[in-house]
């Protein structure tokens, strides 16, 4: 009996210690909001639209990636010289030596965004630089630096992204080099 009581006490202490090491859910959410807003996620994952003062983020499509209805024309030929990439006016399609990449839908839409992803899928994608941690490579302009973030920060980002309004927006698959 004494052994069971000690085992129960030890388990309770271990559980409380683990919970103390984890940030509270609200703290994790706020940390995620902070990281998304200061790390430039919306700079590429929120389409730009023309406003009265020039390009501005389309608030109705926040973090939804490249607009599915925007079919891109053939990629212009870069001039000879040190030029490397071409970006769309929406800042959601990028062309370079890797082909054409389209920024992903980071909203929690279950069909076209992160809605069915697990936290592990998300962390492994950023950690390994591959879709779902094992699929196709993440392409430029996605910074590899996100893979260097702590698990706690990646978890916080995922926690926050699950709370943004879902936007149904199926982003095209990347196009290989030479595709026009």
UniProtKB/TrEMBL annotation:
Residues 1-20 form the signal peptide. Residues 45-68 are annotated as: Disordered. Keywords: Heme, Iron, Metal-binding, Signal. This is C-type cytochrome. The keyword Iron applies. Residues 27-165 form the Cytochrome c domain. InterPro entries: Cyt_c-like_dom, Cyt_c-like_dom_sf, Cytochrome_c-type_DH. PANTHER family: BLL4482 PROTEIN (PTHR35008:SF4), BLL4482 PROTEIN-RELATED (PTHR35008). The keyword Signal applies. It comes from Acidovorax bellezanensis. Pfam families: Cytochrom_C.
């Amino acid at each position: 009996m004494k052994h069971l009581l000690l085992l129960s006490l030890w388990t309770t202490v271990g559980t409380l210690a683990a919970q103390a090491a984890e940030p509270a859910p609200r703290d994790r959410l706020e940390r995620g909001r902070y990281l998304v807003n200061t790390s430039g996620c919306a700079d590429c994952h929120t389409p730009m639209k023309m406003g009265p003062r020039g390009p501005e983020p389309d608030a109705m499509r926040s973090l939804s990636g490249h607009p599915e209805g925007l079919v891109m024309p053939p990629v212009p030929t870069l001039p000879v010289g040190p030029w490397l990439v071409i970006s769309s006016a929406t800042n959601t399609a990028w062309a370079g030596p890797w082909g054409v990449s389209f920024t992903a839908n980071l909203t929690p839409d279950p069909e076209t965004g992160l809605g069915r992803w697990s936290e592990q899928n998300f962390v492994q994608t950023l950690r390994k630089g591959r879709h779902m941690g094992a699929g196709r490579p993440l392409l430029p302009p996605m910074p590899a630096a996100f893979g260097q973030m702590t698990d706690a920060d990646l978890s916080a980002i995922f926690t926050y992204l699950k709370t943004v309004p879902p936007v149904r927006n199926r982003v095209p698959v990347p196009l290989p080099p030479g595709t026009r």
